[in-house]
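Handoff note, outgoing to incoming analyst
You'll be picking up this chain. Sequence as last confirmed:
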Amino acid sequence: MGEEGPGPELHSGCLDGLRSLFEGPPWPCPGALIPFQAPGTAHPSPATPSGDPSMEEHLAVMYERLRQELPNLFLHSHDYTLYSSDVEFINEILNIRTKGRTWYILSLTLCRFLAWNYFAQLRLEVLQLTRHPENWTLQARWRLVGLPIHLLFLRFYKRDKEELYRTYDAYSTFYLNSNGLICRHRLDKLMPSHSPPTPVKKLLVGALVALGLSEPEPNLQLCSKD
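Most recent structure output, in case you need it:
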């Protein structure tokens, strides 16, 4: 058998083309890369200018607007012009994190839908609303008071349904940007608040004790020995 001849040779133009694939400038990234952040990590507060007198005014204006808007959050249409277009919503109740005003509107709509499908009657009480110029935030502690639908069906025979109501406390933190708009809303988990026994129930227990139909609770007394 004869020796095989050398393979096909590449001319200089082809070599330059292949070399350009590896030595050329890097390809531009199609979009800005977002650094990965594991769930559950702390979220730094948005940067806001300190010592700006206009921010004091922004806090005062937003305080008044939230004071009027929050009590009607589940009753009437909410004013979403209070929020920036890239507002971030951190909902620790449903474990939801969104960014953008459109997603924020959808998230609040979902919360309202779930609330009105669980409660037959519902109201929101703002317990405390405070301003914090040190980090340009407004913090609201509010309470959700509602009558669950299943309790209404199970105890339909009760005339006084006051004891059927359930209350849940929540905590919201609103962060403002340099334009005075809310750029982040953090909602902490709801905590059920246990209301003390009603006076009617206390009176009924006292009457049963007086009639001898119920044993009174023993009182613990510390007696010193003589």
